[in-house]
Specification:
The protein has 205 residues and is α/β, with parallel strands linked by helices. Helices cover 29% and strands 26% of the residues. Strand 4, helix 2 and strand 5 form a beta-alpha-beta unit.
């Protein structure tokens, strides 16, 4: 599929403790699973921020994750900080018993980012709350979120305001749709498939 990128500029005006509005640049794209489509933005040029942060579970690293991580790497100049969910952050996830070990997920994230942009300083941390380093690191410039996790990004900025830290620019990246159904890729869906296979194998045995 040819790459189709549509850029939408908008400003969101949530409550932010009396501060300025949070600027948002949103990437929208259509992409297949063949990996040929890559995130892109005209307004937010490559190497726009010295340090960026993002977070997620990153279980069974798939094309949606790679798109998300690549978008962050593209706009980062020097450092990328990634919080990888662990412990209590996994409790309410479906099929949580099938989530890959934290060490494996962290290594996959770091290896992929290094494959995209080898010179970046990659700081991968296990996080046990929704914020991790995003609300204590005063050297961060931007936070990378999906449409689904945008409220979390806004919450990060509120927490930073409360702590006297600067607001982070918000970069919103659309996730890759699953080719056959048009639904977005999901680690939960992948774990469900694995659970069904395990159940079938158990039943047959």
């Amino acid at each position: 599929m040819d790459k189709i990128v549509k850029e939408i500029h908008s400003f969101l005006w949530p409550w932010n403790g009396g501060g300025a509005p949070f600027p948002i640049v949103e990437f929208e794209k259509m992409a297949s699973l063949n990996g040929n489509s890559e995130p892109s933005s005209v307004a937010t040029s490559p190497d726009s921020y010295d340090s960026v942060v993002l977070g997620g579970t990153f279980d069974r690293l798939h094309d949606g994750h790679r798109q998300f991580l690549k978008a962050a790497a593209i706009v980062a100049v020097h450092r990328i900080v990634v919080g990888v969910c662990d412990g209590p952050m996994l409790t309410n996830k479906q099929y949580s018993n099938l989530i890959e070990p934290i060490e494996q997920r962290m290594k996959q994230v770091e290896d992929y980012i290094k494959s995209v942009k080898p010179d970046l300083v990659v700081q991968v941390e296990a996080i046990v709350d929704p914020y991790g380093p995003s609300i204590i690191d005063d050297k961060l410039d931007a936070i990378i979120v999906s449409k689904e996790t945008l409220p979390g990004g806004l919450s990060v900025n509120r927490k930073r305001t409360e702590r006297g830290l600067s607001q982070l620019k918000l970069e919103v990246v659309d996730l890759v749709p699953e080719e056959s159904s048009g639904e977005k890729l999901s680690s939960t869906a992948l774990r469900k498939l694995e659970a069904e296979k395990l159940e079938k194998t158990h039943t047959e045995s």
